[in-house]
Amino acid sequence: MGGGAGAALKRLDCRTDVRVDNPYVGYILLRYMKNEEKRERFKRLGVQRTNAVLNKVKVLSNCANRSAYEYTEEEVNRIFSEIERRVREAKAKFHFPKNREFKL
Fold it and tell me: Alpha-carbon Rg of the chain, whole angstroms?
């Protein structure tokens, strides 16, 4: 193998066990794998955290039992208004801003 800048690199990528002849291709491959790791982490945590929230909503619904709890319609509305507000805030963080160019 030559030592020049244009020499093809032959190396075994330890993360993929795929022979990479071109350093640029190796770089792209590693970037793709890192993005895939982020997707997998998002999916894993998203499922766990969504299920935790849904479980808490189910537990909250147990408070609807009038033989065990006393509450007013206003109190229920305040609880659900706050939950809805927080859900809107969380959802807004996931929206991708539209690329709007400045125009006069």
Answer: 26
Q: How far apart are CA 15 and CA 26, in angstroms?
A: 11
pLDDT (tens digit, 9 = 90+) per residue, 25-81?
Answer: 777 777 777 888 888 999 999 999 999 999 999 999 999 999 999 999 999 999 999
Tell me if 21 sits within 8 A of 9, measured CB to CB.
yes
DSSP for 38-82, written as a single string: HHHHHHHHHHHHHHHHHHHHHHHHGGG-TTT----HHHHHHHHHH
Domain positions in the chain? 11-94
